[in-house]
Amino acid sequence: MAETDTRDKLKRIIIAHGNAAVAFSGGVDSTLLAKICHDLLGNRSIAITIVSPLFPRSELESAKKLASRIGIRHEIIEEHGIDETVAVNTPDRCYHCKKIEFSSITARAAELGFTAVFDGSNVDDLKDYRPGKRALEELHISSPLREAGMTKDDIRAYSKELGLETWDNPALACLASRIPYGERITEESLSRIDKAEDFLRSLGLRQFRVRSDGDIARIEVSPEERVRFFDTAIMDSTAAAMKSFGFTYAALDLEGYHTGSLNRKLVNS
After folding, report:
1. What is the pTM of this model?
2. What sign does the CA torsion over 60, 184, 218, 269 have?
3. Domain at 3-168, CATH homologous superfamily
4. Domain positions in the chain
5. Quick one: CA torsion of 27, 28, 29, 32, rounded to 10 degrees?
6. What pLDDT digit, counting tens, does each position of 83-118 carry?
7. Closest CA to 101 of 25, 36, 182
8. How far apart are CA 122 and CA 2, in angstroms?
9. Strands 20-23 and 45-51
10. Residues 6+ apart with CB under 8 A from 142
11. Strand (E) positions, the chain?
12. Is the pLDDT score of 215 beyond 80?
């Protein structure tokens, strides 16, 4: 499908709904979606952000600023604690998490008079294991970017043309995605991951994850950024930081960052 066709289709999908509550993380996808919704629907659009222990705290301020720049009304829902269905961290954890979060978003949207709830899934998301998609279907959540046939590259290109600062931002994901299935998710484990990734961000790294394998911080960085760790001073400071956050060991994944890397065990089992 040609670029103009996907963009036109996206606009038709949004307009057909008449109003829109966008599940807004401040990432590349949801920012573009919020921007287009606001451009087309004005005050019949709203961005809603769920804040929970699974949401990196640094991303909240970014989401607030982005919503303000777009001009879209921004609602924040605070969720405290971790539901047991999520904490046990089974392979369908994302289903339970999405069901809880989007139930809250849908309820709040309805209270405010919005009948349509959008999420920022795109076509490329279909390539990975995404149990959360079932929850979206059960709750009748629409995914306009995916429905329009837009890929991540399409979204980045469109975002750049619209002057959105997120156009080349690294991919985001909830903190629970750093913990292997079967390892219990706690607020403590999420907090140390959040602190560890804030440290890597302070080094100027862009695309990375700190995977929590028990007491090991397994650091994934984009392949082109691995060279940063050839510096012994960086290695020493990183190891010390990881230990200060509660990890016993720190290790660099030699392959580098790979989206959905924890799903490999599911594929190979």
Report:
1. 0.91
2. negative
3. HUPs (3.40.50.620)
4. 3-168, 175-268
5. 110
6. 999 999 999 999 999 999 999 999 999 999 999 999
7. 25
8. 16
9. parallel
10. 13, 17, 116, 117, 118, 119
11. 20-23, 45-51, 73-78, 117-118, 208-213, 216-221, 249-252
12. yes
